Structure formats: C-alpha cells, structure tokens
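Journal club side-thread
Mid-discussion, someone asked how the predicted structure for our own chain would compare to the paper's figures. Pasting it here so we can look after the session.
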Amino acid sequence: MRWLRAVVLCLGLTLAHTASATSMVAVGLEELAADSTAVVYARVGTADPVLTPSRAYTDTRLHVETVLAGQAPALLNVRQVGGAHGDHTIVVPGDGRLTPGDHVVAFLRKVDGRWYLTAMAQSVWHVEGTGRLARVHRELEGIALFERSTDGTVQEATESLPEPGTFEELAEAVRHLPMGQP
C-alpha cells in the first residue's frame, strides 16, 4: 500500500509539472533561420524591467561578439514578456533564459525596431567553455514540444530534434542557412 501511495504521489507531481508547460511546435535550425533577422554569439548583460500600462517586460542587453548570420549591432536589447517588478514576478514557462554573464548563441527577430527571441527557449543555445569546441545546448524545460504530421495535424513530438554539440558545429550549420527576415 505504501508503494502505491508513492507511485500516485510521483504521478501527481509529474502531472502538476507538465501542466505548467508551454506548448509549441518544435523548430529546427532551418525554421529558426527562416524566421530570424540575425543569429549572434553574445555575452548576456544586465536585465531591466519595463512596465507598460498593459504588460510587464524585461529588456536584456546582449553584447554581440560575433554575428553568425544576418545583421545585428554590437549591443542590442532583447525584449521578453515577464520579469521581476517590485513585489511581483511574472514567469513565462518555455521562454529563453538569458542570465547575465552567460555566453549564448541566439536566433533573433527584429520587429518594429525591437529585438525578440525568434522562438522562445528554442532560440537560445547556452555556450559552456571557450573556443570553437565549447559545448552548446538548449534548455527546453517547461516546453511541451509538438510536430506537424504529413496531413497537417499537430501531434506530440515523438523524437527530439538533432542538436549540434559544439559551438563550431552550430556556427557552421548557421552559416549555410538562408536567413528569413531583413
């Protein structure tokens, strides 16, 4: 009986965790590039809260070290919904994590003069180490990924997308992709 309670508790915790996920269609490098203005290797700078009458945002500075594709300035702000504002914190599950001091490869879109992550957390590769053989990975916690079937319906993703393992592999793949947005 104790075993059954433990299983039910674990199942309940698992379902509770899944309930806070953001659902999105899985996108590969080709789709990300097609929807992006630029792909940059950057150091994450400071993050500033922005309050508007209708929403709370966070603007995070990216100090661009290399533009891998497209065009981008040496310093840009990425706007994300949510953030810490006074006593309130708004979190969007599945959004990209941009932590000051980290190095990232980010797929970005410029819309009406502002920069955004192209596809939330799917747009950000965290770079661990230095040099061309530094390891890269995406943090996709908080996302329920789906894929389009051949008949156009959307279903839960059955396998993960192939991921480049090093900065060099990612940079080389990006250089050969056509960018979508000017």
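Post-session note: The domain at 23-175 is CATH 2.40.50 (OB fold (Dihydrolipoamide Acetyltransferase, E2P)).
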